[in-house]
Amino acid sequence: MADDAVCEIVIEHEGWQAIAGLEARCTEAVSAALAMIDKPRRGPAVILFTGDEVLQSLNQRFRGKDRPTNVLSFPAPESEEYPGDIALAFETCQAEANTRAIALVDHAAHLAVHGVLHLNGFDHKEEAEAEQMEAVEIAALARLGIADPYKERI
Questions:
Q1: Residue 118, annotated as binding a ligand
Q2: According to the annotation, is 13 in a ligand binding site?
Q3: What CATH fold (topology level) applies to the domain 7-142?
Q4: pLDDT cut 90: percent of the chain above it
């Protein structure tokens, strides 16, 4: 991994292994997002591409929710030399992409951006925070030609 890498990608689930261009697309998306924030945390985020079973276990353990979810972010303590970890669940992400009629690689890029923004202090608990976070996501993805993930599709 290069010293200036923005993320380290670990592909654990075989479903993700079949997605052409996954690593490059997500790395480009994360780079685009980090370029848009004032003081991104130093070091590469670790992005784990895994399955629903792992995300369900993590969601139960850390959030008390016994169900899989699409993405989880785990910010590292400020003293660490990296921003933290992100995990994406193949089955949930694939179902969401199918429902929205978008490419799974683009949905994964969006969720990687979403996760890395959480690692850099963004949140969406309050409406104003959500609007700010979504604006960065939309702009970063637009740089890659990925449509606004929050726009209603007809």
A1: yes
A2: no
A3: Collagenase (Catalytic Domain) (3.40.390)
A4: 92
